[in-house]
């Protein structure tokens, strides 16, 4: 049976929307991690058969097939093609899946999976704003007949999750505070140093607030009157990029590569598109069942903190241990550069398994439309 291995994983620091990385062109963000990935793995770039890159807001500087532009901006061979994909927040986790599937099929041996998003230069929603300005709906008649005209947004979805699972504002704030605490401790201990390629004078993730407190969070206004959701319990608007190299067993031997992890299971499910954020729950159950594993078998979980409600509800339903979930902080503290986040989380996951000596890791994240990718990897 064919195998797919992750043999390299690198990311930029995750920057804030007004930080030092915000002025870096998205193609140059991508080029930076692509060059670094090739240098760290020692692979001849001409041997790479495709670059699959996630990016959500594909407009302006992030348009015109950013994967191809970033590869060429890195000075890498013209012979390698690239494709840019959008599965909303899971775009670059899906890039990992497409890369692995190409290898597992036996049709490819070396594929780069990457993600880029500069939310400082290209604000969230830039790709849909022209339609709204023209008075066009984002949804057709069939959608309206099925779901009506109710508000569909990640913010409302997060609040609906609070109501469904009975989370208080304090529950969310305590979770958010722990995310910042873990991220600050990881940075101070140098946990991320090996995986981060400094850029524009930035070597550390910019969004972490080591001095935040429950009192400070309690002083923030909710996003809407009567809601539990505030900015403090949501992921940060960010800038970043990450890249991984996925290789076949044949390529590992031919290029003398050292695998970081073996891909065990790839999955994707859909759930309620209005609540939108719950699909990681059935995705995790499905992936564990197909892999023949239990939640207790997983040493490290990376569950994207779009809002604190997501990992809290996920853990409550799956029985996963929150002490093994986002052990070095998540998107509430470190940021969520949309199309890059899936690759950032996978980079964090494989490096943490190597650092901690854990065997299995599982990554999952909620996505627009009520979807979730899930990936299980094994340290080798």
Automatic annotation (TrEMBL):
Residues 257-379 form the Thiolase C-terminal domain. Residues 5-249 form the Thiolase N-terminal domain. It is an enzyme of class 2 (transferase). Its EC number is 2.3.1.9. It holds the Pfam family Thiolase_C. Signal peptide: none annotated. It comes from the Bacteria. InterPro entries: Thiolase, Thiolase-like, Thiolase_C, Thiolase_CS, Thiolase_N. The keyword Acyltransferase applies. Keywords: Acyltransferase, Transferase. GO terms for molecular function: acetyl-CoA C-acetyltransferase activity. PANTHER family: ACETYL-COA C-ACYLTRANSFERASE, BLR7806 PROTEIN. Belongs to the thiolase-like superfamily. Thiolase family. NCBIfam families: AcCoA-C-Actrans, PRK07801.1. This is Acetyl-CoA C-acetyltransferase.
């Amino acid at each position: 049976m064919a195998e797919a291995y992750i043999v390299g994983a690198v990311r930029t620091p995750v920057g804030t929307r007004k930080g030092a990385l915000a002025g870096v062109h998205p193609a140059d963000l991508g080029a930076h991690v692509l060059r670094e990935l090739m240098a760290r793995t020692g692979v001849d770039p001409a041997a790479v058969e495709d670059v699959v890159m996630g990016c959500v807001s594909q407009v302006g500087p992030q348009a015109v097939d950013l994967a191809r532009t970033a590869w060429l901006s890195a000075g890498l061979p013209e012979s390698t093609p690239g494709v840019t994909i959008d599965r909303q927040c899971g775009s670059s986790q899906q890039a990992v899946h497409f890369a692995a599937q190409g290898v597992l099929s036996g049709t490819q041996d070396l594929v780069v999976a990457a993600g880029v998003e500069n939310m400082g230069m290209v604000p969230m929603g830039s790709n849909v704003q022209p339609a709204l300005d023209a008075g066009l709906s984002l949804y057709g008649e069939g959608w309206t007949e099925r779901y009506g005209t109710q508000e569909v947004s990640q913010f409302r979805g997060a609040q609906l999750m609070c109501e469904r699972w009975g989370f208080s504002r304090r529950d969310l704030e305590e979770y958010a505070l722990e995310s910042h605490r873990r991220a600050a401790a990881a940075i101070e201990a140098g946990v991320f140093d090996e995986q981060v390629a400094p850029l524009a004078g930035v070597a550390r993730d910019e969004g972490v607030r080591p001095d935040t407190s429950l009192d400070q969070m309690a002083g923030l206004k909710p996003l809407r009157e009567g809601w539990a959701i505030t900015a403090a319990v949501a992921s940060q608007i960010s800038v970043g990029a990450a890249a991984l190299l996925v290789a076949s067993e044949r390529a590992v031997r031919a290029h003398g590569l050292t695998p970081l992890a073996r891909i065990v299971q790839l999955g994707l499910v859909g759930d309620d598109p209005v609540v939108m954020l719950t699909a990681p729950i059935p995705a995790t159950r499905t992936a564990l069942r197909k892999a023949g594993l239990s939640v207790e078998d997983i040493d490290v979980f990376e569950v994207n903190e779009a809002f604190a409600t997501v990992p809290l509800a996920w853990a409550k339903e799956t029985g996963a241990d929150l002490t093994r979930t986002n052990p070095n902080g998540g998107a509430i503290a470190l940021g969520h550069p949309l199309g890059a986040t899936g690759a950032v989380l996978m980079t964090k996951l494989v490096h943490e398994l190597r650092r901690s000596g854990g065997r299995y890791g599982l990554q999952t994240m909620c996505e627009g439309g009520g979807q979730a990718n899930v990936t299980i990897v094994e340290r080798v």
